[in-house]
Specification:
single chain; 358 residues; alpha+beta; Chorismate synthase, AroC fold; five-stranded antiparallel sheet; 28% helix; binds flavin mononucleotide
């Protein structure tokens, strides 16, 4: 499966060291102003090679729009966008042609398909996520019209962090840190791991603001379920929490319930979702990323013939996934919201009347 979404949906194609990566986005409402500069800016936030906290692979990640746009507006037909790969160094990977990298998808891809493009991880490479960021940026063009904001940042790196989020700061930070006071320590943790030929894990937070009440389909397309699905589909994500999430398991009901006064909810432990439906409060999603599997320390593993081998990896890799991953998480959340908005339009008689009488 290479597609995601019901009404607003996308399909990605391409591999890390192939000619290009691309996306076909379907269900984009017609007549939307197609702000290509905005889309490129979003893609640039995920781009590799920008600083020492990311892989040194330098890609321009220039988007090329192939279809679905006429005179600066969307036409309601599929939007095809391609990004050419320009900085592959396939030779770096010749050593792992027959060897499985611990923690990566090499082993499962090989056994599932019997063939794998080992260069840069092929299709299992996070190179694919650039295509999702493109789709997310198009979704954001829709959300922008409705003043719905989707923000993200990194709350924790290797256990260093806090729940005091500053999204404004994250936007400017080299590591998208949500905590200005801890940013230096977080950077040090990344650089130290990198110096030791190792990697670190981390947590990203996505916050959705100005969301209407009523998004989410009970029972089997719940907003929280689909958001979790979207987040877990991102490479390296190992856990997702909505609102107070796992913390709520240690609380009493009286501590965890969000009581209401005449203005609305007094707290937001539910994370903006009740019964799978948005309750109008902001939505907070915590996305937990494992450490980058490709590290440069010698590791014991198997080759495709079952022989035990010592792997000494070469190449260029992110010392942390959560940083660039936070941008991908923000994109996936935006896609889910637009899909839910489109689905919601037909869920009430008023929605149908508005369409009929427009
Ligand atoms: C933005 C982003 C960048 C990543 N960069 C790397 C990388 O440089 N090297 C690597 O081995 N894995 C990287 N990963 C993670 C792998 O793609 C991922 O761990 C692998 O596909 C195995 O999947 P799993 O961890 O979900 O089981 C990255 C993931 C994301 C989201």
């Amino acid at each position: 499966m290479n597609s995601f979404g019901r009404l607003f949906s996308f399909t990605t194609f391409g591999e890390s060291h192939g000619k290009a990566v691309g996306v076909v986005i379907d269900g984009v409402p017609a007549g939307l102003e197609f702000d290509e500069t905005f889309i490129q800016d979003e893609v640039d936030r995920r781009r590799p090679g920008r600083n020492s906290f990311a892989t040194a692979r330098k890609e321009s990640d220039k988007i090329e729009v192939l279809s679905g746009v006429f005179e600066g507006k969307t036409t309601g037909t599929p939007i095809g966008i391609v990004i050419y790969n320009t900085n592959q160094k396939s030779k770096d990977y010749s050593k792992i042609r027959d060897i499985f990298r611990p923690g990566h998808a090499d082993f499962t891809y090989f056994h599932k398909y019997g063939i794998r493009d080992y260069r840069g991880g092929g299709r299992s490479s996070a190179r694919e996520t650039v295509a999702r960021v493109v789709a997310g940026a198009v979704a954001k063009l829709v959300l922008r019209e409705l003043k719905i904001e989707v923000l993200s940042g990194v709350s924790h790196i290797h256990g260093i962090g806090s729940s005091d989020y500053n999204f404004h700061h994250a936007r400017k930070s080299e590591i998208y840190s949500l905590t200005p006071k801890l940013e230096e320590a977080q950077k040090q943790a990344i650089l130290e791991a990198k110096e030791n030929h190792d990697s670190v894990g981390g947590t990203a937070v996505v916050r959705i603001k100005h969301i209407p009440i009523g998004l989410g389909e009970p029972i089997y397309y719940k907003l929280d379920a689909v958001l979790a699905d979207a987040m877990m589909s991102i490479n390296g994500v190992k856990g997702v929490e909505i609102g107070s999430g796992i913390d709520s398991t240690t609380r009493l009901g009286s501590e965890n319930n969000d009581e209401m006064d005449r203005h609305g909810f007094i707290s937001n432990n539910a994370g903006g979702i009740l019964g799978g439906i948005s309750n109008g409060n902001y939505i907070d999603i915590k996305v937990h990323f494992k450490p980058t599997p490709s590290i440069f320390r010698p590791q014991t593993t198997q080759d495709i013939f079952g022989n035990v081998q010592e792997l000494k990896l070469k190449g260029r890799h992110d010392p942390v996934i959560a940083v660039r991953g936070s941008v991908v998480a923000e994109a996936m959340a935006s896609i889910v919201l637009v899909d839910m908005l489109l689905l919601n339009m037909g869920r009430t008689i008023d929605g149908i009347r508005n369409f009929y009488h427009k």
